[in-house]
Write a structure and sequence with these properties.
Elements: H1 7-12, H2 29-48, H3 55-64, H4 69-82, H5 89-100, H6 104-118, H7 126-139, H8 143-151, H9 161-165, H10 173-187, H11 189-194, H12 202-226
Helix pairs in contact: 2-4, 2-5, 2-6, 3-6, 5-7, 6-7, 6-12, 10-12
Length: about 230
């Protein structure tokens, strides 16, 4: 049975005591539902951060958190409830942090998804950016790490592929390739699914991989264009 069908139950227990382990080193089904509910709530409250939830925000949310026809109604009801106010979003962020503490790459995927929702109407307001920065802080990202993630979506540095890959412009070709491979391996959808990424979040992984691949290709093209030809 899909986790999405348990969201209503999970919402009522979000702030209750943690559930016991199932004996196999895995969180219980309800614990997983709590995580899904927290992710949906973060997305809904991100849509509300600028004071108004538009159709573009709802479409962006559905692009990030993909659902099937059987679960769409349940997700919609919980989304509608959570989007009424931004109050409580830090508590949801802490639930996500606890679940993915050992997998910072997944926390970055979630933050990427929130940026995608924030950008649905083409701009990010000061209220939305405050929301994003606060969530990043709860997730444990440093100011520098947040700036790298932010600049992959916004700002004058958004087109800087070196910043997106987290390397310096004078990096050697060999080390650049290694950095790209590390980033690609850490964020590849298949790898994340194997590590336990909920299938409902696969859109986030695909989005991040596209950013990484585009940045690497841009650097290679630039280096090829400016490298002197040997006749």
């Amino acid at each position: 049975m899909s986790l999405w069908t348990h969201i209503s139950v999970a919402a009522a227990r979000l702030f209750g005591p943690p559930n016991a382990d199932d004996g196999n080193g895995r969180a219980s089904h309800v614990d997983e539902a709590k995580l899904v509910a927290a992710l949906v709530a973060l997305g809904a409250k991100m849509a509300k951060a600028d004071g108004q939830v538009r159709e573009e925000d709802i479409i962006a949310f559905r692009q990030v958190f993909r659902t099937d026809p059987q679960t769409e109604a349940t997700i919609g009801r919980f989304f509608d409830l959570a989007r009424q106010t931004t109050l409580g979003y830090k508590r949801y962020a802490r639930i996500v942090t606890k679940a993915f503490r050992a997998q910072p790459g997944l926390l970055e995927d979630v933050l990427d998804g929130l940026f995608h929702i924030a950008l649905a109407d083409g701009i990010v307001t000061s209220e939305e950016e405050e929301f994003l920065e606060t969530v990043a802080e709860v997730f444990g990202f440093s100011n520098r790490e947040y700036r790298r993630i932010r600049n992959s979506h916004l700002g004058q540095d958004a087109d800087d592929p070196y910043l997106i890959l987290g390397v310096e412009p004078d990096i050697s070709d060999k080390n650049l390739k290694s950095a790209y491979r590390r980033a690609a391996a850490a964020n590849h959808p298949d790898r994340l699914m194997a590590r336990g990424l909920p299938k409902e979040m696969i859109g986030l992984a695909n989005h991040k991989m596209a950013i990484i691949n585009r940045a690497y290709a841009q650097i290679l093209d630039e280096r090829k264009a400016y490298r002197p030809r040997i006749s």
